[in-house]
Write a structure and sequence with these properties.
The chain has six helices and twelve strands. The chain has helices at about 20-30, 85-90, 90-105, 115-120, 135-140, 165-180; strands at about 10-15, 20, 35-40, 45-50, 55-60, 65, 75-80, 110, 130, 145, 150-155, 155-160. Strands 6-3-1-7-8-12-11 form a seven-stranded mixed beta sheet, sandwiched between helices. Strands 2-4-5 form a three-stranded mixed beta sheet. Helix 1 packs across helix 6 (about 165-180). It is globular. It starts with 8 loop residues before the first strand and ends with a helix.
Length: about 180
Amino acid sequence: MTATLQGKRIAFLATDGVEEVEYTRPREAVEAAGGRVELVSLDGGRIQAFNHLDKSGTYDVDTTVAQADPAAYDGLVLPGGVANPDALRADPDAVRFVRAFFDAGKPVGAICHAPWTLIDADVVKGRTLTSWPSLRTDLSNAGAHWVDAECHVDNGLVTSRKPDDLPAFCAKLVEELAEGRH
């Protein structure tokens, strides 16, 4: 039986510099499972995605993180890219938004460099997760146990390393979102 997200509202938190495929593929998976996606960002308008270091598409923002209410969403997805999570982790509203999902026990997906934002939200201590390998030391210093795995799930937190891991990431993400609160 395929997991369904019918009636679930999922926030994707991203800003300029997001790795395009790490935004579009999970979004497509969530929507294909019946979920309603909203792009939440630091500012309104559009965000500029990248394919590694090259500009790619732009995407309409549905609401700003300062206006978004975490209680209105059933789950959160944090796409990667280098600039995207670095900007998010420096924004107090974004950090509070992320933290609220963990406080409520809601499922969260984070891929590649996205766990940088989790560090600043102070939600990785005692958790096991994976990421782009260069974040290993940062995550370990924040109290996380880092593993080199295609996809890892820790009590509703789904993490993966890179775009090559997207098939596994998307499948587990939809599964955890369908399960709901942990």
